[in-house]
Each structure stands twice: as structure tokens, then as C-alpha cells.
Amino acid sequence: MSIEQLPSILNGAGMKVAIVLSRFNAPIGDLLLKGAHLALREQGVADADVLQVTVPGALETPLALQYLAQSGKFQALVALGAVIRGETYHFEIVANESAAGVSSVALEFGVPVGNGILTTENDEQALARAKQKGYEAVLAALEMANLRRAIADHEN
Fold it and tell me: CB 3.0 to 4.6 Å from 141: which of 11, 85, 114, 146, for a disulfide?
């Protein structure tokens, strides 16, 4: 007897994807977005199937994701933003609460969310990681959307 394994699939052709971009730390957000757009194109997601919205910061991201998930129009969502450590405890609050909110939307609505919200010690770290993190967030969301579809197909 062999164990059945579902394949990992990144193909996004025909999928509707929404991106929520935090405007805080805009230069880093621009790089995150470049990486995300590159991944979407490489995985066959048509520009017409992508909706992009912006929010003030990482704390507002989960609510925008919730609005998008509630619409039922998207197979995958992507959160992009940057939280950079400062001199106060605020970094921990924003980093932890935004991550918890992103996860809670995915779990509540069953819509994959690629978390591309960077949490770094400084601007240099964020700039070095931004394009790749945006790219990887899209791949994670597409892979999970394909897994959801594969599981549903497997059950039938």
C-alpha cells in the first residue's frame, strides 16, 4: 500500500487574487509590490484578475483582508507591508497584532493569505528582503489556494 500525496502547485492561472499593501514605509512597500507582481505574472495570474488596495499601516491590513475574504471573489489574498523596530514597544504590538489578524482572516474564511508583512530591526534589513518577501508571499498564497482546490477535488 502506498501513501497518496497531493502535489505542491503554484500555478495561478484563472485565480482571482487581491493584494493589501500598507502605505507606511512606502519605499519598502514598493519593493514588496514589485516582487509580488513578478510572482503573479510568472505563475500565470492575469493582471485583470488582481485587485490591489492600500491601507494606512499593518494594523489596518487584517480588516481589509477580511472585507476581501467576505466578498467571496478571491481564491488567494496577499498582505504586504513593513514593520520596522523603533525605540518603543510599539513595534511588538504592531508586529504581533498584524500577524495574528492576518492568520485569523485565513482561518475564519478559509481563504489563503500570503503574509508578506516584514518585521525587521532596521530599514536596511527591510530593503534587502522586501522584493523577495513580496514574491514569496504570493507563492505561499497560490500554493495554499491550489492545495485547497486539490483537497476539494480529492474528496469528490
Answer: 114
The set of residues, in sequence order, having a beta carbon less than 8 Å from that of 35 and lying 6+ positions away, is 130, 131, 132, 133, 134, 135, 136, 138
Q: CA 110 to CA 145: how far, in whole Å?
A: 9
Q: Is 90 a catalytic residue?
A: yes
Burial of 133 (0-12, 13-18, 19+ CB in 10 A): buried
Record: fold of 17-151: Rossmann fold (3.40.50)
- Which of 26, 70, 90, 151 is catalytic? The answer is 90
Predicted model pTM: 0.96
- In the chain, where do the E strands start and end? 17-22, 50-55, 76-84, 113-120
